[in-house]
Structures are given as C-alpha cells and as structure tokens.
Amino acid sequence: MGAHRRATPTIRRRRSWWAALLAVSALVACTPGTRTNAPATQPAPTATSGTTAPMTMRPGALFYTKAGSLYVSEPAGTPGRKLPDGPADAQPAPSPDLSHVAFVRKATAADYGGELWILDLSPQLAPVGPPRRLVDPAALTHGTGDVPAMVASPRWSPTGKQVALVDNPTGGAVDGGYLLVAAADTGALAPTPLFTRPGSYYGDITVLGSGAVAFTAQPAGRGAADPSKTIQVLDAGSSMPRTTVTDVAVMLSCQDSTRGGSVCNAAQEPVWGAGDFVAYLDTSAGNGLVVTDLDNRSPARVDTGVDTFAWAPAAR
Known about the structure:
By secondary structure, the protein is mainly beta. It folds into 2 domains: about 60-195, TolB, C-terminal domain (Neuraminidase, 6 Propeller); about 195-315, no CATH class. The protein is about 0% helix and about 35% strand. The protein is built from no helices and 21 strands. It has a 4-stranded antiparallel beta sheet, with no helix packed on it. The chain has a 4-stranded antiparallel beta sheet with strand order 12-13-14-15, with no helix packed on it. A 4-stranded antiparallel beta sheet has the order 18-19-20-21, with no helix packed on it. A hairpin with a 7-residue loop joins strand 14 (about 230-235) and strand 15 (about 240-250).
C-alpha cells in the first residue's frame, strides 16, 4: 500500500496501478524432478547464536534486473549472477519448472514496455543459448498512430506452456490494454486478443490452477464517486470473461495533508491462494477483508479496518 499526494480533491490515478507487484518476480520453490533445494547443513549451536534459529530450508531462486541486465540469486540472498545483458531488460518472470525466464526487453529504461523475450535455463540456472524474442510488438496491430504497441507484465501458466501478457497500444500513455496469451514454445508470434473492451483498465493478472485467468477491470473515468473495480475470470476455453466480484476497493482512504491537498492510500490488490480462493478488500466503509471462491458462492468477511494481507505458502 502506498501513499499518493494530490493537490485537488480529485483522486489522481496512480500510474500503472494494474501492473503493481507484477514487475518483481520471486521464485521460491523448485519442482521435484527438475532440481532440488537440499536442506542447509546445520551448524553446531554456539553461545552467540543461542537466540538465533538456524535456517532449516535453503531458500529458492530470486530473479531481478539491474542497470538493464537480468540477474539470478540462487539461493536467494547470495550475490546475483548476471544472465544476458540488456539493453534494458525488466519484469522477469521465471517459468514454474525454472527451465525458462520470460522478461520484457526495452530499447531504453524509460520506455513503458517493449518486446517479450525468453531465456532458456539449465538445471544450474545458467543460460542455454542466447535469449529469443517470443512476441514482437511490431507484429501486433494495436498501435495508435506512430506509437507502437508495447508488451508488459508477463506471467506464466501453471503448466509452463503459455505466457499471459498485457499489450498496451498507447506506449503507456493510458493504463491497461489487451490481455493476450502466447504459446511458450513456438518462438516469435503475434497472439490474437482473447477479448477487447475499449475504455477499461485491466490489472492484477493471475493464472489460476484451473487454467483460468483472473484479473481486475475498472472502467475509465471512475473516481471518488465510484472508486471500485471488479474481479473477472476468463475460464479455459472461453472467449469472454465473467464478472465474479463487483466491490473491490481501489482506494482505502484520503486524509488532508499539512502541506495542502490530501494524501490517498491505495488499496492492496486482490490476492489468489490455493484452491482458487481470492482475498480482497471491499468498498465498504469498514475496509472489509473478504475471502471467496472462484465463483463467489460463499463470500466470508474476515475482519474490518484491514490494510494489507497475504496468504500462507502452500504446504510442502
């Protein structure tokens, strides 16, 4: 949750709210049969370490970008190893089995998005050959005038066979875009839009265990009078999404600032957990934390006055 200052009572839309938290990908588990994270050797207790619990599990791998290059820290916490050079790589997204990492390659760091590339990885997380371009925005027909389409926010399906992404047709001048899915093993291609709805902002994209794609949608122009968005689900094999939740909060509260104007706190985005359950903050005055299933059959309010939240990791 972040604080945002405004100079007038009108809520200023936070830039790229739909891409919040998608730009940083941390992979914390290796799948059996591909590579194993062995327990760390337990040191003998010492007088100086009596109050510090020893690490019982070796952490997974953490992918990140710095100065336009892609790095991996494995196990997480060790110095990072550079993978390919830029010129301006960003938004790393490791595949579920760690055999690939998708990322957005941009011409300059100031660009909103760029091209979708994939780097194949060995079991030791070393590059296997040079990276390859999977989606070239120039091949897409959604550009506006002289502005080419731009790819952003790659996310893998649970099977590792597809990559979901957002195709923005305005160079980032307007948030949101087309929700697309590309096959991960066919090289460069121009995927067709799953659906389009002009005037809507899409964000918080999550590929569910069922194969469905969940995301939030907010019509353009909504402000303080209706600060809400919906949760929509595109089922596997379907061509149109369905709306499951209609009262997802966008802003939690706004307070007057001693420096003039006011500060508005953005609500945390919905978070999906095991079994395709979702937790979200609703638009009620009490900032209710609600948990419900994929079809919103039995929503349950957990508490009110909630700021942030997170699911516990799945049992291993």
